Amino acid sequence: MDTILVVDDDPNICWAFEQFLQGEGYTTLIASNAEDGLKLVAEQKPDLVLLDVRLPGISGLEALQQIKVSHSQTQIVVMSAYDSVGNTIQSMCLQAFDFLPKPIDLDQVKSVLDRATQLYQARDKIVVFPMETADLLAEPKPHLIGKSPQMLEVYKLIGIMAGNVMTVLIEGENGTGKGLVARAIHENSARRHQPFVTVDCGALPDELLESELFGYEAGAFTGAQEKGKSGKFELADGGTLFLDEIGNMSPALQMRLLRTLQDREIDRLGGTHTVPINVRVIAATNANLEQVVQTGLFRKDLYYRLKRVPVTLPPLRERPEDIPCLAQHFLNQSGIELNRSFRGISEECLVILQAYPWPGNVREIENAVKSAAAISRSDVILPDHLPSEIQTFTVSLETAKTEIGSVFSKMVKQMLQNESGPHGENGLYKEMIQILDRELILALRQELGNNHSQIAKQLGISRTTLLQKIKTLNM
Ligand SMILES: Nc1ncnc2c1ncn2[C@@H]1O[C@H](COP(=O)(O)OP(=O)(O)OP(=O)(O)O)[C@@H](O)[C@H]1O
Ligand SMILES: [Mg+2]
């Protein structure tokens, strides 16, 4: 960033800024009204404009709108002493980079300029570019993003299951996209023009859930509607019924669901005859249903009936290669939602996104990117825009490094003091490397289980080398 335009009708302020900005090494342009300012913007294309609100002729806020239309890359900092609250809100609505209250505090100016400089530098290092809105709108829905091998397996299963009407059980942690996958199976199936009906089995108490699913006849219970009500099974007839959070269903209802799946008919509460139904059931759970079965809270027979074809969604931390395209996707969506266009995500910011373990999976990264887009004052997402727990996570990685450092130095000190210490025979290097190897393998085992190929891949060594290490370390 090198050229800054100051637009203010007070010559003293212009003079003071000129001295200060030139001292900081910027080329400075001065205008005493908005009309002259707009001309200078067109001719000299300054990187940043410091713009007063109250000006003779066109107001600063009007000039701001015009510059944002004609030179969308130019950052504008609005300054005002009058009615600060209103002007502050309005300038931020109009995409100002920041707002400086008068009287001007030079420290504040300096910090704004630093941030603008960071932004310009980040612009040169953008790694994730959004797509054109037109391309986006033309994309088929629902958008399932991710090209990792694990997701490719999921897409294959979606395709296979879309071709039949078998019951599907989708398993996966919170926010891994179970709802989206259920919809994708429906949308790709021959039933796509029929209803897709969702029931959240975790959200309703038992009796309500029962009448929600199976419907009821008039007078089935006190408070029942006069005409009775169709259940979701009937509403989904011909289409797909998505039973979300199935693990929360009571054993009595599980029994009834199993019967319905087997007999392909339902009877309404208080009803006297059964109704045949043609419904494809997709169920989802974020609990480990197998464990729930072992505790006796989930019927084994229903579990196996549902699980004939399980679709398991991998957590995001196991497929970090999907992070850039997911971030891009959600930035695209933000552009549409906020009616703004974004140039991309800075390199630094992407490094942070890829290091974070995303306990809330795709939903969490969606929220992080969308909130960053909303608070970013420009067309680039920088680390500062991310939710603080994500920013500080990398800091805590840094902390972990210094902690390891201090542990190591204590160990070395002790080893050196102890003449007959363990380093005597093997040398300190070998001793420490072995400690490190053991900790690394233990940590990876905890994450990946005893999958030696995966562990070797993560360590970047061959499986044979890994097995040798395990043997030497007697693990
Ligand atoms: N692969 C993906 N591509 C694009 N968006 C995704 C993907 N996976 C999840 N999402 C988005 O993430 C959010 C969470 O997804 P979804 O609601 O399907 O997760 P879930 O597994 O059903 O979570 P929960 O268990 O909390 O109900 C949604 O906004 C969804 O659109
Ligand atoms: Mg869900």
Structure description:
Helix content is 52%, strand content 14%. With 475 residues, it is of the alpha/beta class. The protein has 4 domains: 3-124, Rossmann fold; 149-313, Rossmann fold (3-Layer(aba) Sandwich); 326-390, Helicase, Ruva Protein, domain 3 (Orthogonal Bundle), CATH 1.10.8; 418-472, Arc Repressor Mutant, subunit A, CATH 1.10.10. The strands form 5 sheets. Strands 2-1-3-4-5 form a 5-stranded parallel β-sheet, sandwiched between helices. A 5-stranded parallel β-sheet has the order 8-11-14-7-15. The chain has a 3-stranded mixed β-sheet with strand order 6-16-17. Helix 4 (84-93) links the parallel strand 4 (75-80) and strand 5. Helix 7 (149-162) packs across helix 8 (178-188) and helix 19 (428-448) packs across helix 20. The two termini are 56 Å apart. Magnesium ion binds at residues 178-179, 244.
Query: Overall pLDDT, averaged?
Result: 88
Shape: flat
Number of helices: 21
Global structural class: alpha/beta
What is the CATH class of the largest domain? Alpha Beta
Report how far apart the termini are.
Answer: 56 Å
* Proportion of residues in helical segments: 40-55%
Query: How many β-strand runs?
Result: 17
Bound molecules: adenosine-5'-triphosphate, magnesium ion
What proportion of the residues form beta strands (DSSP E)?
5-15%
Please name the CATH architecture of the largest domain: 3-Layer(aba) Sandwich
